[in-house]
Amino acid sequence: MIKLYCFPRSGNSREVKLALFEKNIPFEPVNTHAPDFNKEDVEFKKASPKGKVPAIIDGDVYMSEAFEINQYLDKKYPAPSLSPQDDAAAAKIREWVGINDKRFVLKIGLLVIECLLKPKDQQKEETKQKLRAEISDVLKEMDTMLEGREYLFGDYSLADISVTPHIAALPILGTSIPAELKNVTAWFARIQARPSFKQSAS
User: Fold this and answer.
1) Residues 52, 64 contacting (CB under 8 angstroms)
2) Residue range 86-108: average pLDDT?
3) Which letter, b or e, does each residue of 141-153 get, where b requires 16 or more Cβ atoms within 10 Å of its Cβ?
4) What stretch of H or E contains 135?
């Protein structure tokens, strides 16, 4: 059985959980924030030399980084597929995820730090507003992209998974999907209706 190193509020860990639940792959979650977890555990360090989550052990495969893990899972456990069969289309998803990992998911991570992890007297409102505006800009691009589509690249894919946990976190960061973005709003409603969304929440 796959061993998944994670912790409950990790958006990156949830990306992998989403893929695992979509594919009905049994796995053993290991909470790296549990009091009895040893961060120097040899197996964990082999899977994640930098000590970050998510990380997996699948037989003799040791791997970290959410999108890399999900690509591996999609190749080894192909049904249901979370990537287009066409190589060019799959490459477009990889490119999109790579770009938005830095300009979107990273910004949400920085907003988490500013809103939740810093002491209140060190939080800067101007930084929060700047990050929220940058996040909103990407959501507007997604709204255009979703015109006439149910999911980001047509069918549900690793692209949708890559942003789902991070968009789900927006309300606790003082922001949300703007009401005028009808396509993103409808897309997220479809995401929330998938069983994997609730299954991956803890």
Assistant:
1) yes
2) 97
3) ebbebbeeeeebb
4) helix 125-145
Tell me how long the chain is: 202
**How far, in Å, CA of 145 to CA of 140, rounded?**
9
Quote the tokens at residue 175: 């922001």
The β-bridge relationship of strands 55-58 and 61-64 is antiparallel
Q: Are 114 and 123 in contact (CB under 8 A)?
A: yes
Mean pLDDT score of the chain, rounded to an integer?
A: 97
Tell me, what's the pLDDT at 167?
A: 98
Beta pairing partners, 57: 3, 62
How many beta carbons lie within 10 A of that of residue 191, not counting itself? Answer: 19
**To 10 degrees, what angle do helices 158-168 and 66-76 make?**
140
Token pair recorded at residue 141:
């691009």
Residue-level pLDDT at 173 = 97
From the number of C-beta atoms within 10 Å of its C-beta (0-12, 13-18, 19+), residue 125 rates as exposed
Whether the CB-CB separation of 26 and 1 falls below 8 Å is answered with yes
Residue 115 — pLDDT band, cuts 50, 70, 90? very high
151: left (phi over 0), alpha (psi -120 to 50) or beta: beta
CA dist 75 and 69 (Å) reads 10
Please tell me the predicted confidence (pLDDT) of residue 4.
98
